[in-house]
TrEMBL record:
Signal peptide range: none
Similarity section: Belongs to the glutamine synthetase family.
Any single GO BP term: glutamine biosynthetic process
Pfam name, any one: Gln-synt_C
GO molecular function, one term: glutamine synthetase activity
Protein name: Glutamine synthetase
Residue span, GS catalytic domain: 178-615
């Protein structure tokens, strides 16, 4: 066996378990490392506390004096907890999070040593924007940008560093991160949804979008993971013959979690709890070594920050337990990939979930209003929503025969379909008293308070209503939820604004009663958004054809999916909702395309290395062994050796064929890569990588995997699927 593989396997087998004790009641230390309400009350003056609260709830600006007080409080708390540094924590357009640490330690003007951290440092920091991806439109941006405190997400202590969540903006004002546009979208949503919620309850003054993500991931033994260049560099296996046992038996799903993994999970949950991340469920997923972690849902901005923080914490804790976490959407062929379902809803400051049916016809009309408007919004902007989850990794799911499909459609279940069908028949204009009663009692009034049981049945749907929320299932396991959440909240906010306007007009100009007007507008929306509703099998070919005839988009790869971002409609949408300017959208499209290209480029390079430095040499070595055998047989048996050598020679020839194919295809792939690299238009370049480089990957892999089957196990240099995939 090759040295590298042998060492890795031995080391994985001799690991001693790190046992983690259960740590008592989590409520006792939940959020102990967060500068939360409790801490603020303790460390801030009443006035400073009130002002921070006002900033969180209604976006009131915090002046410098108050910022100084908050900084002082934070510093005192953080240092009492052992902090030595602070950092502005932000979300650049690629990667997950970034930070630049500064020590509290400083000199006073008189030259004395002191611990310094004031309002200035809290509120704003300079950051060299040029080293972060900001698109090719560089000269329109100044090279420098700054990070600015986001008081809606509390500061937290991570290790010995005080982390302050921030937005990242260019000096010219453009957002250089994922958080700023998300905050703007959430703001737009608050305004639009509050106005509509007031139709039903005048006391509502704020609406929060809520997000509950479900993070899927793979855990691989660290030394096994690092024994493979593809996992180390590309985050996934580029070659590898399926293990004889995969997920056919379905015995991993909800099965017993292996001890080593359980210890990792306990450790992780402890750390998350301290950081105020409300993790709740843990279980095995369908594939071997695949797991999921889900929190209790939170306000969207905070939920996004918590997911990003979680991914970081996971990597660190995994490392301590000698694991590597794979967040890639498709680390192994032949078994399920990983996603990050985004459960989304809207909550009022009066404590009502706007997507939850209620106990009275009025509450149900409110539910239907938000429900139908969401459907309408997704129908209007399905292609844009699809673009928000595009990435090279996610192409393996959305673009291939894997859950969920690239076509966006909405599943709502039989009961709600019936309700919508009935509403479609509502009379235009004024309603007779009988019809109104009938509607309220027998249609709207009949929506059961709890829909959970009959709605969550269709696992093939990319956007499913699950009783009291929508579940967006196409989000990639690695991606930042800020992207889909920014788009989803923008399009629904836009839709709610249009709805409000239409209802007001019917009331003001046509003299309709408010509820009549609402029924009238909803009826039209139900009619015009029908094509997005689909209850059947989302993976079937029938649906693909049907969706095409309905005019729904089916963008199977990232370069194609990203095109719509800069369409006239998309640009107008983002601009009108004050979420992104044209240049901000263009920069994001460029950065995403650049990231796609880099991703495929790295995979191409790794393929080259695998082929030339690993697989071909191993195949040749084994081939030599066979040839030596044949030569030996000939020496001993003379002419009689022919029959005895037949099989060996057959294998020798087959090995040669595969080597030849690998070499030809790898060289051709490298040529295509060179051609693609000479293209200056970024979109064309991305398409070249997608259409001309990437297709070789499958072809090269085919021959590599055939060789894995032919070549003797002890000659094979790469750790095999069966060794990687079953944690003991
Ligand atoms: P499943 O695996 O069937 O999708 P889970 O229980 O794993 O279900 O996940 C449900 C997710 O939905 C959880 O993350 C939960 O926090 C979230 N969720 C529940 N209610 C809401 C809501 N109102 N808004 C957003 N997310 C929600
Ligand atoms: Mg789910």
């Amino acid at each position: 066996m090759s040295n590298q593989r042998f060492k890795a396997i031995t080391s994985s087998h001799t690991r001693t378990e790190i046992v983690v004790e259960d740590s008592g009641r989590r409520s006792e230390y939940f959020g102990m490392n967060v500068f939360n309400e409790e801490r603020m009350l303790q460390y801030l003056t009443k006035d400073a506390y009130d002002r921070v609260k006002a900033a969180v709830v209604s976006g009131v600006k915090i002046d410098r004096k108050v910022a100084d007080q908050v900084a002082e409080g934070m510093k005192t708390w953080a240092i009492s907890m052992g902090a030595t540094h602070y950092t502005h924590w932000f979300q650049p357009l690629t990667g997950t999070t970034a930070e630049k640490h500064d020590a509290f330690f400083d000199f006073s003007p008189e030259g004395r040593v002191m611990e310094k951290f004031g309002g200035g440092q809290l509120v704003q920091q300079e950051s060299d924007a040029s080293s972060f991806p900001n698109g090719g439109i560089r000269n329109t941006f100044e090279a420098r940008g700054y990070t600015a405190w986001d008081p809606t997400s509390p500061a937290f202590l991570y290790g010995t560093t005080l982390c302050i969540p921030t937005v990242f903006v260019a000096y010219t004002g453009e957002a250089l991160d994922n958080k700023a546009p998300l905050l703007r979208a959430l703001n737009a949503m608050d305004e639009a949804a509050t106005a509509v919620a007031k139709f039903f309850d005048k006391n509502v003054t704020k609406v929060y979008a809520t997000l509950g993500w479900e993070q899927e991931y793979f855990l691989i033994d660290k030394s096994l993971a690092f024994s493979r260049p593809d996992i180390s560099l590309a985050g996934r296996t580029l070659v590898g013959q399926s293990a004889a046992k995969g997920q056919q038996l379905d015995d991993h799903y909800f099965g017993v979690i292996p001890n080593r993994v359980l210890n990792f999970m306990k450790d992780l949950e402890k750390e998350c709890t301290k950081l105020g991340i409300p993790v709740k469920t843990r279980h095995n997923e369908v594939a071997p070594n695949q797991f999921e972690l889900a929190p209790i849902f939170e306000e969207t901005n905070l939920a996004v920050d918590h997911n990003l923080l979680l991914m970081d914490v996971m990597e660190k804790i995994a490392d301590k337990h000698f694991f590597k976490v794979l967040f890639h959407e498709k680390p192994f062929r032949g078994i399920n990939g990983s996603g990050k379902h985004n459960n989304w809803s809207l909550s009022t400051d009066t404590g009502v979930n706007l997507l939850s049916p209620g106990s009275t016809p009025m509450k149900n009309l409110q539910f239907l209003t938000f429900f139908v408007n969401t459907i309408k919004a997704v129908d209007n902007y399905e292609e844009l929503l699809r673009s928000s989850i595009a990435s090279a990794g996610n192409d393996h799911r959305l673009g291939a025969n894997e859950a969920p499909p690239a076509i966006l459609s909405i599943f709502i279940g039989e009961q709600l379909n019936e309700v919508l069908n009935e509403l479609e028949g509502v009379t235009k204009g004024k309603l007779s008293p009988e019809e109104k009663t009938e509607l309220k009692l027998n249609v709207v009034g009949k929506i059961p308070e709890i829909l959970l049981d009959n709605t969550d049945r269709n696992r093939t749907s990319p956007f499913a209503f699950t009783g009291n929320k929508f579940e967006m299932r196409g989000v990639g396991s690695k991606s930042n939820c800020a992207k889909p959440m920014m788009v989803l909240n923008t399009i629904v906010a836009k839709q709610l604004m249009a709805f409000k306007k239409e209802v007001d007009q019917l009331v003001d100009k046509k003299g309709l009663k408010k509820d009549e007007a609402i029924f009238n507008v909803l009826r039209e929306y139900i009619k015009t958004s029908k094509r997005i509703r689909f209850e059947g099998d989302g993976y079937s070919e029938i649906w693909e054809n049907e969706a095409k005839s309905r005019g729904l988009s089916n963008n199977k790869n990232t370069p194609k999916a990203l095109q719509v971002l800069t369409s006239k409609e998309s640009l107008a949408l983002f601009k009108s909702m004050n979420v992104m300017s044209e240049i901000e959208v263009r920069v994001r499209q460029e950065v995403e395309l650049e990231e796609y290209i880099l991703h495929i480029q790295i995979e191409g390079r790794v393929f080259n290395e695998l082929a030339y430095s690993y697989i071909i040499p191993a195949a040749v070595e084994y081939q030599n062994k066979l040839i030596k055998n044949v030569v030996g047989l000939k020496e001993i048996y003379g002419a009689a050796h022919k029959k005895m050598s037949e099989s060996q020679l057959d294998i020798v020839e087959r090995i040669s064929e595969h080597i030849r194919a690998i070499k030809i295809k790898t060289d051709a792939m490298v040529d295509e890569r060179k051609k693609a690299n000479n293209i200056s238009d970024i979109s064309k370049k991305a398409f070249a990588y997608c259409d001309n480089v990437r297709p070789y990957f499958d072809e090269i892999r085919y021959h590599c995997d055939k060789l894995e089957q032919l070549v003797g196990d002890e000659y094979w240099p790469l750790t095999k699927y069966r060794e990687l995939l079953f944690i003991k």
